[in-house]
Design goal:
heterodimer, A: 227 residues, alpha/beta, five-stranded parallel sheet, 12 strands, elongated, B: 471 residues, alpha+beta, five-stranded mixed sheet, 52% helix
């Protein structure tokens, strides 16, 4: 995976370069907009991390020219400008993501991973939390390779929770994700499903937490023990 | 169109425009009336003189053996015809015979025998004023009719003179009035010009009051309002300067930490020995980041002008619920049970979603940061009796003495957990105010903990599903 970092602040560029190299990417870095434009026109990259405020040619213009060449290379805009119209402009010009400085390096790494995965057309077929594996396409789940016997509704609830692991899934969102069964499923039915799921997940190192008034949150049990 | 509408209009021109039409009408009327009155006096005076002449003419009629004859000698003729300005025409005639005269003209029809009369006629194409008189014999029977006419020269001259005499002073009076008006306005507005000059000449930092002594009563409200605005500006500017100084001071701390820990790390050669310094470095930089983000939020919340520009209709319950959901992972990391309770339906209000989210986030952040661990934080949206957002924790609560001060910028309760910027509650206040809401802090009943309440003005219309069902 070849990543181009276009950032004129040496400290940030250095931090990004090191972090992404450590994550296993080949990284080129340049500080000047026109150089970046040239590099993108001649080389092939799997992802561009692009600052907006650049000497010679600003990031929006680099992006515009890149898209004008019909390139589909994912672009992550990185800028201190967080006004809504700047975000909108960046995304309208064809940026795939937008991160405002200051940022946490872990967040950049996660977003770079997601962008590359998406651009490679890799589906998020398998979701893993702890020792729980869910194959979304095959509609099967297993714990340490041992298949779980889940009813379709239970699987649907688990899938939604897994996709948003570590974050709250609002009860309404869970309900609407079970749209096909909505006629049969009242709000209490969700609780019934979760209750059954918890039982079946006894062996898995995950917890489904009930969040008062909001919904549910699935997380790795190890994480909870750590905190 | 706007340019036309915004063009400044001169007070003087406006007043003159207002005054000129009625002035012209009054002037015309008074001139007409005085002219007519003067002319009628003059007419009767001239007519009297005309009568004297016709009487003298009539007296020259004698009866010669019962036959009327005009005895007009040269001296009498000269006397009759002597008029410095007007042509004089006269004629004496019986019913069928002209006795004498210097012109041929007829009496108006139906006039004969009526004695003394005045009438207008024309001789040789010129308009004349005539008087007629019947000469009478001894038996008081009319013998002949004398007619005496004169052209209108002196009458016209008098009319002209009268007109000038009446009109001239009136015109002078009007001109004087308008002139005085103009001068009066200029003099009356002179203090305003002085104020304008004073304001125009001052520098952008000079916010002292504009001198408002000697200002006429009509302008005093303007200078008073101007001074009130200047006072408010002064207040705001002072507060802003204090804020910038405070902010810079606050930023120094994490930056100094960064510098110190960087030095420390650079002096270590062993990677493991570097770790504590690096951990501190990260903590300091996170603090700086958080502080800067909070400062930006605050600047955005109190940005000049009307924050309502970005307001739109939103479901407050949904906004609060979403923010809570976002904060759950952070709460779990801190072993805090974060929960939400709201009304069954939507709660529609006018607001800015980002700012409201920031406000609730700050309260939840505070509750997690300064509450009990493990502990419970509950966020509630209440619609009865009025719309409120309540963020309740079961922590140690805020000491009585601090309850006012915690809303001040950069104020932090002595001995409280580190990492806060001291700006969170100031941000909450700004955003609440922009939404017409009050921030209150109450201790939680029956135990420790605090409840921060965002109380919306009762004027805010709350539409929940319940209400819709009832209606």
């Amino acid at each position: 995976m070849h990543v181009l970092i276009v950032e004129d602040d040496a400290v940030i560029a250095d931090g990004l370069t090191h972090a992404l190299r450590r994550a296993g990417y080949a990284v080129d870095a340049c500080e000047i907009g026109s150089t970046a434009d040239h590099a993108l026109a001649t080389g092939t990259y799997d992802l561009v991390v692009l600052d907006v405020e650049l000497p010679a040619l600003d990031g929006f213009e680099v992006l515009r020219r890149l898209r004008a060449r019909k390139s589909k290379t994912p672009v992550l805009i990185l800028t201190a400008r967080d006004a809504l119209h700047d975000r909108v402009k960046g995304l309208d010009l064809g940026a795939d993501d937008y991160v405002v400085k200051p940022f946490e390096m872990a967040e950049i790494e996660a977003r770079v991973r997601a962008l590359i995965r998406r651009s490679q057309g890799a589906s998020d077929n398998e979701i893993v939390v702890g020792n729980l594996h869910v194959d979304v396409e095959g509609r099967v789940a297993n714990v340490d390779g041992k298949a779980l016997e889940l009813l379709p509704r239970e699987f649907a609830v688990l899938e939604v929770l897994m996709r948003r692991a570590g974050r709250v899934v609002l009860k309404d969102a869970l309900l609407s994700s079970l749209y096909e069964w909505r006629d049969e499923v009242g709000p209490n039915a969700i609780e019934v499903q979760v209750h059954r799921l918890r039982k079946k997940l006894a062996e898995a190192e995950v917890d489904i937490r009930t969040v008062r008034g909001l919904g549910y949150l699935l997380e790795a049990r190890k994480e909870a023990a750590e905190a | 169109v706007t340019e036309r509408a915004s063009r400044p209009r001169s007070l003087r021109v406006q007043l003159v425009r207002w005054l000129a039409p009625p002035l012209v009408v009054v002037l015309a009327l008074s001139t007409a009336v005085s002219y007519l009155v003067a002319q009628s006096f003059a007419k009767s005076a001239f007519d009297n003189a005309l009568f004297d002449s016709v009487r003298s003419l009539a007296q020259l009629v004698v009866l010669d053996d019962g036959v009327p004859a005009l005895r007009l000698g040269p001296s009498a003729k000269a006397l009759l015809e002597s008029d410095p300005e007007d042509e004089v025409y006269y004629r004496v005639a019986t019913r069928d015979l002209t006795l004498g005269g210097n012109a041929e003209f007829a009496l108006p029809p139906g006039h004969a025998g009526k004695g003394t009369a005045y009438f207008d006629a024309s001789v040789a194409g010129r308009p004349v004023r005539c008087a007629s008189l019947d000469a009478v014999g001894r038996d008081a029977r009319p013998t002949a009719t004398a007619i005496y006419c004169e052209t209108l020269n002196k009458r016209r001259r008098l009319a002209r003179e009268l007109l000038v005499a009446v009109l001239l002073p009136q015109l002078m009076l009007a001109a004087l009035g308008l002139g005085l008006l103009s001068v009066g306005i200029r003099r009356g507005l002179a203090p305003l010009a002085a104020v304008t000059r004073a304001v125009g000449e001052r520098g952008e930092r000079d916010l002292s009051p504009v001198p408002d002594t000697d200002v006429p009563a009509e302008i005093a409200p303007l200078t008073r309002a101007l001074n009130a605005l200047l006072a408010r500006l002064r207040h705001t500017l002072d507060a802003q300067q204090r804020f910038i100084a405070d902010a810079a001071h606050q930023l120094r701390t994490p930056l100094a930490g960064l510098a110190a820990q960087t030095d420390r790390a650079m002096h270590e050669t062993d990677i493991d020995a570097m770790q504590p310094a690096l951990t501190q470095l990260r903590a300091s930089s996170r603090r700086a980041v958080r502080l800067v983000n909070q400062l930006l939020t605050l600047a955005r919340a109190e940005r000049g002008g009307d924050p309502r520009r970005s307001f739109h209709r939103l479901d407050l319950a949904k906004v609060v619920q979403d923010v809570c959901a976002e904060w759950v992972p952070e709460a779990l990391r801190n072993r805090v049970d974060l929960g939400f309770s709201g009304p069954p339906g939507e709660v529609w209000v006018e607001g800015d979603e980002t700012l409201l989210g920031e406000m609730i986030g700050n309260l939840v952040d505070n509750a997690i940061r300064y509450g009990r661990r493990p502990g419970t934080v509950t966020v509630r949206v209440v619609t009865v009796p009025q719309l409120e957002i309540v963020v309740e924790d079961d922590g140690p609560g805020v000491p009585e003495a601090e309850r006012e001060r915690i809303f001040e910028r950069f104020h932090r309760i002595p001995g409280s957990a580190p990492g806060g910027s001291g700006l969170g509650l100031a941000i909450v206040c700004e955003i609440a105010q922009a939404h017409g809401a009050d921030v209150r802090l109450d201790p939680v009943e029956g135990g420790g903990g605090s409840a921060f309440r965002i109380v919306f003005a009762s004027a805010i219309r709350v539409e929940t599903k319940d209400v819709a069902l009832v209606a």
